[in-house]
């Protein structure tokens, strides 16, 4: 083993961070680009389902809060694209991979947001699941990725709380509002659990990602952590968990649950979900409609690039 690999393994073993200038195995770099780019794409595509309700928010305050959340997501995406760029790939390449279907984004964003209660379910469940996953990623071995998670997690907490506030208003509102809240929970419960990825036994990347401490806890561990903290919230809302087998298991100290519908999961991941085509088309149109903004920014950066002048 050459000295670079020894030094790399040593940093990982000591729980120290790998920085952009450090030597790293090419497969480590590629794995990180894969995961970080999908994380960034998820943040940006994830703005679409919520953007769908921006002009229909039920009050000015609701609109302000939703707008603030959506703007945060854009910032998270830019943060994570910048992390990916430290690994030697350009923003343009990342976007091209997304448009060519070579890069994924989280399957959860391929479901439609049909009612205002969905804005609650998305903030509460989707951002709630993202927090469980991202708090763990604050300890990922790649320095820029770990540091980006610290700020992102702080903002996700606001997202989760704004979603839960909507769910409380709906669940404690009129019978029709409570029904809308239950319907949103029914449609987003299992897709949110799928955000944690396939079972550990079926996870292509987990074992290597755990060895390199890219992933600090397993898909199933984090999924169970999310289920255990969310079921009591569902009970507080007076709603029903959309899984008759979801019961507290005194022996394991966790909630049991039904088997997941992995056929649906892979069907959505492979591009056949309710909104996959719409999400990509919207992203492509936004990219071409706003090309002039990027061109102007690049031109300005060149004109005012002091380092080039010095
Ligand atoms: N949607 C789409 N693809 C998924 C997926 C999902 N929910 N879960 C897993 N996959 C894909 C993986 O990308 C991998 O495919 P690939 O080889 O083409 O990349 C394949 O399924 C096998 O899964 P693995 O478990 O082996 O993959 P990972 O080790 O990468 O684990 C993960 C999956 C837990 C999602 C991990 O990639 C991760 O932690 N990613 C960072 C967090 C993230 O991307 N979250 C997405 C939501 S972001 C968000 O919600 C923002 C919030 O503000 C709303």
Automatic annotation (TrEMBL):
GO cellular component terms, A-Z: cytosol
Signal peptide: none
One example of a Gene Ontology biological process annotation: phenylacetate catabolic process
Annotated TM spans: none
Top-level lineage group: Bacteria
InterPro entries the UniProt entry points to: Aromatic_CoA_ox/epox (IPR052703), Ferritin-like (IPR012347), Ferritin-like_SF (IPR009078), PaaA (IPR011881), PaaA_PaaC (IPR007814)
Listed GO MF terms: phenylacetyl-CoA 1,2-epoxidase activity
PANTHER family according to UniProt: 1,2-PHENYLACETYL-COA EPOXIDASE, SUBUNIT A, PHENYLACETIC ACID DEGRADATION PROTEIN PAA
Listed name of the protein: 1,2-phenylacetyl-CoA epoxidase subunit A
Species whose genome carries this gene: Putridiphycobacter roseus
Lineage of the species this protein comes from: Bacteria, Pseudomonadati, Bacteroidota, Flavobacteriia, Flavobacteriales
């Amino acid at each position: 083993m050459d000295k670079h690999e020894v030094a790399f393994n040593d940093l990982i073993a000591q729980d120290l961070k790998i920085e952009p200038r450090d030597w790293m195995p090419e497969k480590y770099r590629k794995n990180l680009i894969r995961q970080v780019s999908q994380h960034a794409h998820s943040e940006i595509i994830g703005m679409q389902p919520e953007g769908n309700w921006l002009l229909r928010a039920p009050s000015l305050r609701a609109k302000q809060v939703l707008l603030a959340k959506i703007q945060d997501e854009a910032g998270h995406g830019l943060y994570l694209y910048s992390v990916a760029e430290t690994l030697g790939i350009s923003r343009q390449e990342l976007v091209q991979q997304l448009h060519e279907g070579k890069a994924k984004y989280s399957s959860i964003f391929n479901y439609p947001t049909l009612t205002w209660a969905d804005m609650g379910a998305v903030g509460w469940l989707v951002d709630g699941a993202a927090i469980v996953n991202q708090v763990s990623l604050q300890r990922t071995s790649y320095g820029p990725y770990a540091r980006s998670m610290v700020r992102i997690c702080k903002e996700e907490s606001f997202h989760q709380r704004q979603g839960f506030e909507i769910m409380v208003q709906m669940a404690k509102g009129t019978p029709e509002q409570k029904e809308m809240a239950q319907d949103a929970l029914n449609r987003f419960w299992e897709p949110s659990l799928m955000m944690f990825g396939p079972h550990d036994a079926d996870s292509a990347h987990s074992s290597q990602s755990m060895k390199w401490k890219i992933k600090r806890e397993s898909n199933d561990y984090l999924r169970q952590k999310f289920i255990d903290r969310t079921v009591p919230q569902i009970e507080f809302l007076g709603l029903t968990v959309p899984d008759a087998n979801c019961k507290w298991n005194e022996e394991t100290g966790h909630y049991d649950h039904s088997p997941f519908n992995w056929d649906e999961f892979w069907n959505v991941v492979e591009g056949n979900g309710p909104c996959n085509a719409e999400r990509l088309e919207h992203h492509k149109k936004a990219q071409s409609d706003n090309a002039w903004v990027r061109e102007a920014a690049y031109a300005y950066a060149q004109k005012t690039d002091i380092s080039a002048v010095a």
